Amino acid sequence: MASTVNITEMLGSDSISGSRVTINSNFLILQNWINGYVQVFGVDTTNGILDLTNSSIGKVSAKVGRFDSLSLPATGTPSTSFDSSGGASLVSLSSTNVTVSGSLISNGNITFGSGSTFVAGGTSSFNGPLNVNSSFYLGVQGHVISQNTTAATGLTAGTSFPSTSSGGGGYSTPNSSSPYAITGLEDVIYADCGPTGFFLKVVDGTSPVGGTLPNIPQGTRVTIVNTNSATGYIWTGLTGSTTYYTGFNTDSTYGGYSSSGIEIPQNKAYRSSIVLQWEPRIGQGQATMNGSWVVIGSSNVTV
Are residues 280 and 292 in contact, defined by beta-carbon separation less than 8 angstroms? Predict the structure, then answer.
């Protein structure tokens, strides 16, 4: 209910001098009402501000609202903000259906439950983990492009690979003392596997204790493509040990991989590859060659 102001009405026959008390009373009523209105609604006529944050309810109802910017909540650090160009910052969002017509950039975790629908009409960039608890479908125009490819230093898009007899531009690790350190971000590694071999590791360690569990998520996959035409090998595991840990489980009850590494036959440059998956639950930290890499698939490779 709207607030009202009541003052004493004066007649035309009333004299000014005789109505002085009534006039002063009316002005005092108006003064108190205006001061109270300004205080409760936080009115700043100089800067055009209406501030209701000190009110217990602070509600504004309107048919149409137009703002150059909007921030929520009213006090403290905003968790949601919108600017005049349509840009939005959502620190926390809880909604079943989210439709985005432009770019969506997330710097944190995004989790879609089984009943959620996500529709993006533009480009979506996820700078944090994307957890999908249901099927992930690619439509008729859906496709996957990976930019996490590792090759020799200096090779960029549009640069031809060198001759396969000189390594083909693959990443070179000439000995076990300088292996390539897996970060868990690689998708494809172009590797110079021959003739001395391609060495990679996930952790350092000292024999016979073995290494500590690396910070690589279980199920991480990496594809290694050989770029050398000579007979080559892939070794992976720990360094700094008297016995080189292959990272492939050599125990006959697990995999029985060769302790000399995965063999790459000659003349199979760009035709030989192997897909590895990291499984830290297998033989982690053991003194024997019980590594944690599982071979998911291979082509022109002797495992």
Answer: yes
pLDDT digits (tens, 9 = 90+) for 172-207: 998 878 889 888 889 999 999 999 999 988 877 655
- Beta-bridge partner residues of 240: none
First to last CA, the chain: 82
Q: Are 103 and 83 in contact (CB under 8 A)?
A: no
How far is residue 143's CA from residue 132's CA, in Å, rounded to a whole number? 17
In this structure, what token pair is assigned to residue 114? 């089984």
How many other C-beta atoms can be found within 10 angstroms of the C-beta atom of residue 83? Answer: 13
pLDDT in tens, 2-12: 567 777 777 76
Alpha-helix residue ranges (DSSP H) falling in the chain: 20-41
Q: Cβ distance 254 to 219 under 8 Å?
A: no
Report the amino acid identity of residue 232.
G
H/E run at residue 180: strand 180-181
Burial category of 301 from C-beta neighbours within 10 Å (exposed 0-12, middle 13-18, buried 19 and up): buried
Residues 273, 224: contact at Cβ < 8 Å? yes
pTM of the model: 0.65
Write the DSSP symbol of residue 20.
Answer: H
**Would you tell me how many other CB atoms lie within 10 Å of the CB of residue 173?**
21
How many helices and strands, by DSSP H and E, does the chain display?
A: 1, 22
Cα 261 versus chain centre, distance? 35
**Burial call 199-229: b when 16+ CB within 10 Å, e when fewer:** bbbbbebeeeebbeebebeeebebbbbbbbb
CA distance 56 to 54: 7
Tokens of 238: 């720990």
